[in-house]
Amino acid sequence: MMGAPDRVPGEPFAAKPSKDAEMDRILKSMEGKVLKDKGSAKKDLKQQVVKQIKDTGIY
């Protein structure tokens, strides 16, 4: 489970203060963007290299 690793099973649930919850949401969304962008960054680099090779006129 990915819920709350710092909470002992059976311990009563205590909601996080809103600032902490907001920070967690922001961090998770940033992590998701990084994971999504990782693949596209490689594709962008490949496209850039191919374009530069074509622009030189050799191929």
From TrEMBL:
Segments carrying the region annotation (Disordered) are 1-23
Its domain of life reads: Eukaryota
Question: What name does UniProt use for this protein?
Answer: Uncharacterized protein
